[in-house]
Amino acid sequence: MFKTANAFASHLVRLIRWKFLPKVFATVLGLGLFLLSGFHWSVFLIYLAVAFWSYLSFVREERELLRFSFFLLIFGAPFSLFVIYGFFPDIHFLVPISLFIVFSVLLGFMFGFFQSFFEDRRLVFRIVQSSLLFLSLLFLSFVHSFADFWFSPISLFWFLSLFIVSVILIREFFRFFRVFPGLSGWFWSIFSGFLSVQLGWVLLLLPISFLGVSLILSAFLLLSREGLMAHFSSTLSGRNLLFGVFGLFFLLLASFLL
User: Fold this and answer.
1) Which range (68-77, 83-92, 131-140) has the least confidence?
2) CA–CA dist 59, 253 (Å, integer)
3) In a domain, 227, yes or no
4) 33-74 pLDDT, tens per residue?
């Protein structure tokens, strides 16, 4: 009798842990309908309602850990698809399909994180954040590659978006790992965002493709956040620092070939 009760309880726990999948499916379906409707605003509102209903159904303490990433993913995916179809109608059809698949996978990781489905939550957090950072920079650099001059609206949008995305994602990273409490977390996040804008300005002067620019900026921001966390938690070693510097150097060399 006790074995039967334990088996039933174990099965029930497994079912509860998997209950985030219907929410993923419903949100992905909403984005797909928005795409098929020709980006109609009424379908977009339905998609947002489903996405936020799914988000608010999770425990508050869990969903707050990836709050910025959720907003970036939920609004960034339809915006990216709208820009690609609206301004680049001749682009290969595999590009929006790939973006749609990546959105689905990242949303699955995110909702699974909210549901405490994964054992190594730190790894999943890094996967979601790093992927969002790279995809955001890739999209922004792609759009900027069509700018006619430096102070065009596209260029101003690129610099402003680069700063905002860098700051909010790095701040979220510091808050999750509890490295910088209070205003110090915002200070180092804004400082990293400011450096990313300076680096982006330099990279735009070099003969590097938009893919190379996004790769170097992503690597710089990832190394910055990990380096700051390791330094202030007294876990930074000379070997890791040297590895990061050489990695960024070889990535810079490879970017000239892309």
Assistant:
1) 83-92
2) 45
3) yes
4) 988 888 888 999 999 999 999 999 888 888 888 899 999 999
Report yes or no: 102 and 132 within 8 Å, Cβ to Cβ: no
Burial class (CB in 10 A: 0-12, 13-18, 19+), 77: buried
- Could you write out the DSSP letters of every residue in 20-43? HHHHHHHHHHHHHHHHHTTS-HHH
Tally Cβ neighbours within 10 Å of residue 67: 14
Total structural domains within the chain: 1
pTM for this model (two decimals):
0.82
Q: Is position 29 within any domain?
A: no
Which amino acid does the sequence have at 53?
W
Q: Does the residue 136 lie in any domain?
A: yes
Look up tokens 């994964």; give the residue.
118
89 exposure class (CB count in 10 Å sphere: 0-12, 13-18, 19+): exposed
The parent domain of residue 103 ranges over 57-255
Provide the angle, in degrees to the nearest 10, between the axes of the packed helices 238-255 and 210-232.
170
Q: Residue 258 to residues 200, 207, 212, 221, 254: CA-CA distances in angstroms?
A: 17, 10, 6, 20, 7
Q: Mind listing the pLDDT tens digit for each residue in 173-213?
A: 888 888 777 778 888 889 988 999 888 888 887 777 788 88
**43: in domain:** no
